[in-house]
Amino acid sequence: MMSGSLHILQLPCLPGLPSRGSFTICSTRRSNKAINAISAALLKNLTGVRFRVEDAKHCKTSQTSFASFRAQCSNEVSIERSTVETVGKKPFVITTPLYYVNAPPHMGSAYPTIAADALSRFQRLQGEKVIFVTGTDEHGEKIALSAAAKGRVPKEHCDIISEDYQSLWKDLDINYDRFIRTTDSRHEKIVDEFYQRVHDKGDIYRADYEGLYCINCEEFKEEKDLLEDHCCPVHRKPCEFRKEDNFFFALSKYQKELEALLSSDLEFVQPSFRMNEVIGWVKDGLRDFSISRAAVEWGIPVPTDSKQTIYVWFDALLGYISALLPEDVEPTLDNAFSAGWPASVHIIGKDILRFHAVYWPGMLLSAGLPLPKMVFGHGFLTKDGLKMGKSLGNTIEPKDLVSRFGSDAVRYYFLKEIEFGRDGDYSEDRFINIVNANLANTIGNLLNRTLGLLKKNCDSTIGIDSLSVSSDNPIRRVASEAIAAVKEDFTCLRFSSACEKILSIATSGNVYLDERAPWSLFKRGGSDAAEAAQDLVTILEAVRIVAVALSPVTPQLSEKIYLQLGYSNSDFMSLSWEDTRWGALKEGQKMPEGQPVFKKIEIQMDADGPKENPSQKKKKKNKLVPQSVSQV
């Protein structure tokens, strides 16, 4: 290598090095030894990270532009992480469960998807390249039975229910990037390759299995885990005895690896209290599990025995990988890995935590693939002490909620009122009270009051740059402190806490407006009127910041606020998290005629009890009984 020349290597992350970012490799000698050392020491272990190789003696780049992180790989080569270059970094991959299509979606399906969408919107504001994956799990005995009950063939049934999910996601403003269906032929090729890789590793064997089987869970159950009369604790239905010739995955082979993973990576399972559950399962001793079904025809055939089909979980989990494949590339594991794997976070219900935090890592270790960075198990939404589920028949229709109250109200209530990770309840009365108080009154009314005063006294025009508001101003200080904490909350999926902090900005704005009483100051004229004009700018800038920060949760409301502040749709669509900084509103900026950004839900009383104002709903359906919801 000639002195001062530039050499780029596309190499992955070494254990202990950051998983994203770029690195500069500086040679201490003017020779090719640096390249040789890298090739020998790193090439087999590193990928997807940009490296810059330079002669240290003639290096023109200031070393102060690099982070202090350093890993010595040899006497001749040092690797330093760049704080400015982001070329080659992996996308931020967010996944929901692949929802089972035995029945149409309910609020339990919508809940984690809303959360995943909020996280993806936040990460995009952060400048991340996001791949948001959702989809449907379409194989298995339960689906075949559901289709037969409707007089349909399984594929027809899957097509209908999968379309129901995609329609609901549109209603809820779910901005996903990939929708994977496990009946897709490209997914089947990924499953076949994965199965063959694990088989060739010697981790699949054949044996008889007998025991109690839950059709709804589609898995064999340990008798000690069942309720009275051998009832499944999840579905409250009796399990049936089965004896089958199956193929098994040797999960027990990875006991030590999984123990090491859980002890070394405390962030792998979140919230942290869920980690204790997973550690307990692993410490009890991992058991090999059946990965095929001899009696189920609706599924992907086992590559080594076409008379059996692959167990639904051994199939569906791979949807997270096959979803990453661009349409124009061959469906292989290597291509899927290059497209973005591993996932940054799996958002799933706590009832399928074992599959994602124990079975899935074992499968990936066997196949030699990287593990997801985090598995987040959210809680249940309950009714009568039971989690809501399609098999239990106690669901509510999210489409009906959206039709009656709007998508922003639904998104806001479930993310703000329920601590993500904990169990929570849905109450229609509380739903209406919360969205009215927070969105219509605290935020919407604050904006309308202020715009009204601006129109009356300032010709709807900003009189000063918002940046000229003193840094000691209480509203500016509250906003700055809240936003710093909100960023951490969103990063850690603390949606409820984030919403509370954002709301506190608007709450403080209302108090400030009442205390300052700018309507009175305007009447006095002179310097008092100038102070009043500054007060209005202060409030409007605070509301603008609220709109940006809350946009991952309430995208429609946030856009309406931005339009009310004189911005365009394209201005809103080009926002980044940097726009939560104080100082965007400029002198001379003209505000349009004020319009309500969130209409209050009006309740009328009739003989049957409260109901919403008919003028506010798009379509009236059967009255819903307040109930709770859960993850499938």
Automatic annotation (TrEMBL):
Keywords: Aminoacyl-tRNA synthetase, ATP-binding, Ligase, Nucleotide-binding, Protein biosynthesis. Signal peptide: none annotated. Residues 224-451 form the Methionyl/Leucyl tRNA synthetase domain. One of its GO terms (biological process) is methionyl-tRNA aminoacylation. It catalyses: tRNA(Met) + L-methionine + ATP = L-methionyl-tRNA(Met) + AMP + diphosphate. It comes from the Eukaryota. GO terms for molecular function: ATP binding; methionine-tRNA ligase activity. Residues 603-632 are annotated as: Disordered. The keyword Aminoacyl-tRNA synthetase applies. One of its GO terms (cellular component) is mitochondrion. Residues 603-615 have a biased composition (Basic and acidic residues). Pfam families: Anticodon_3, tRNA-synt_1g. Gene3D superfamilies: 2.170.220.10, HUPs (3.40.50.620), Isoleucyl-tRNA Synthetase, Domain 1 (1.10.730.10). Its EC number is 6.1.1.10. InterPro entries: Anticodon_Met, Met-tRNA_synth, Met-tRNA_synth_2, Methionyl/Leucyl_tRNA_Synth, MetRS_core, Rossmann-like_a/b/a_fold, tRNAsynth_Ia_anticodon-bd. It is an enzyme of class 6 (ligase). CDD domains: Anticodon_Ia_Met (cd07957), MetRS_core (cd00814). Residues 481-602 form the Methionyl-tRNA synthetase anticodon-binding domain. The keyword rRNA-binding does not apply. Belongs to the class-I aminoacyl-tRNA synthetase family. This is methionine--tRNA ligase. It comes from Ceratopteris richardii. The lineage of its organism: Eukaryota, Viridiplantae, Streptophyta, Embryophyta, Tracheophyta.
